[in-house]
Amino acid sequence: MDSMEMNHSLPFDADPIQPAAAAATGRRPDSPQFTDDPMLDRLYGVTLALITELAVTRTRLDTVEKLLARRELVAGEEIEGFTPDDSEAAARSRLQAEYLDRVLRSLD
Amino acid sequence: MIYPAPWHTIGRHALLPAAQHDEMARFDMVAHLNAHVAQRLAPKVREAYESRVLNAWRMRQGHEPADRHEVAAAMKQDPAYRAFSLVRRNTMEIRQHAGRTLVAREAERLRAVAQAATEGAATLRLDPKLNLPRYVTAVDTHLMQGGYTAERIPADVSNAANYDAGMYATIGGSGGPWNDAAGRALVAWLKRHHPRFSPQCIVDLGCGLGHNTLPLREVFPDAAIIAVDVAAPMLRYGHARARARGFDDVQFLQADATATPLADSSADLVFTTMVLHETSRQALPKIFAEAHRLLRAGGLTLHLEQPPYRGLSAFEQFMRDWDGRFNNEPFWSALHETDCAALLAKSGFGSANVFESRCTAPPAGQSADGDEQQEDFGRAPAWYAVGAWQAAKGIAADG
Ligand SMILES: C[S@@+](CC[C@H](N)C(=O)[O-])C[C@H]1O[C@@H](n2cnc3c(N)ncnc32)[C@H](O)[C@@H]1O
What we know:
The complex is a heterodimer. Helices cover 64% and strands 0% of the residues of chain A. By secondary structure, chain A is an all-alpha fold. Chain A has a domain at 37-107. Chain A is elongated. The two termini of chain A are 22 Å apart. Chain B folds into two domains: 7-121 and 146-170, no CATH class; 181-389, Vaccinia Virus protein VP39 (Rossmann fold, 3-Layer(aba) Sandwich). Helix content of chain B is 44%, strand content 13%. Chain B is built from 13 helices and eight strands. Chain B has helices spanning 21-61, 68-75, 79-118, 134-137, 158-170, 181-193, 214-219, 232-244, 283-294, 314-320, 322-326, 332-336, 340-349; strands at 124-125, 201-205, 224-229, 250-254, 267-273, 295-305, 354-360, 382-389. An eight-stranded mixed β-sheet of chain B has the order 1-4-3-2-5-6-8-7, sandwiched between helices. The model of chain B is unreliable at 367-378 (pLDDT under 50). S-adenosylmethionine is lined by residues 133, 136, 148, 182, 206-208, 211-212, 228-231, 234, 256-258, 273-275, 278-279, 283 of chain B.
């Protein structure tokens, strides 16, 4: 493929690194294989993304809890008993779906 | 364990993508994963090599691994090396993806900021007709999708923005808030070894975002500074970033470093930082020859890179070669096996005028001419430097 053409039609969210190589091997483009089983390499990919995202979430939670505590607004029990309303629940669903797109990217 | 600097300590300027809470936390985790790879997993790889792999290889082959290729063959199956590689590679992928999703949100806003900075400025000269070298356009260098030249929207700066924001995470802030440790190291080297060298015209070949160009402006306020790159998105962003930081008179020029439109004998200092390992075998001698063409008598060319492999143990070479094997750096291995000093000598400088050296950045925030000898507890970023002085032309050409 003409590389210029490839560059200029590059979407933000496509992962291809070397499309031709990907097509030939059926694996994710330019992914080296470090284990004896390609599925295991993918599992590591998922796991590391998951590790990262879990840490991101914990950091966010830590931010929120620190802010709330600083202002003496919310106590721990209120968090345990929380139920979202409909629009909050919809927004949360979207977050959860986007979360999976991110951590399962290795399997695309 | 040395912790990386958190992302929010990066130097702020108008072009920097505005990372939200989770985006920052994600960059922080990338930095932590890299710190873990370097400080926890890499020592385990050495341990595995020394305690079991080396012996097993000796038993089978009857000799020690002769070079990095044999070390690679010996280490291929080793679980410590596999774990190291899996985490390191995935961290690079996570870093690229994190940057990409961040700049996707910011692309149009940042383009507008860059355009506003360019309005009426004569300091950015793009050449839409420039023939981009294939070795640049065809490679997604260090897994950066589309490479330096990709444009997802017209007048795009998004890959450049990703490079700026993400590099801080990749190196855990070790380049200082402005990602400019190599530029500061270069300046410190000049001040220490050649305190009276006072260039009137400075050319930075393969300037990227100009991270390492700007420290030269701080110490040579009267010099003309021309930052050259082939990639328009890098130059748009770099130019706007420089202006946003108050550097109004650094020129950014789109040109191929192997053949710039600049005049013969017009420069006193022609340098590169971290460029040679991203240029092809064919381009490398041409860049040196171009430096020779550009320099006046008494001028200096200087190139900062990771050290060459020669003189390092086979194991060390193997570890340093990881980027060449697994981080989409196709020219990495060849560059580190090239004798750049010899190549400079052959490019017109003559062997008598060529030298190799080392340079170290003073801790960020300290003046560039601060004392290089200061205790740094191993944190100061350090580079191999190879360079040459320009004798009067025609005299030095002994090859
Ligand atoms: C790793 S970046 C280094 C950027 C900068 N020197 C720094 O220290 O931050 C390499 C840069 O070299 C540029 N480059 C590669 N080959 C080039 C060439 N032949 N002419 C001009 N620029 C080139 C790339 O576009 C990229 O911006």
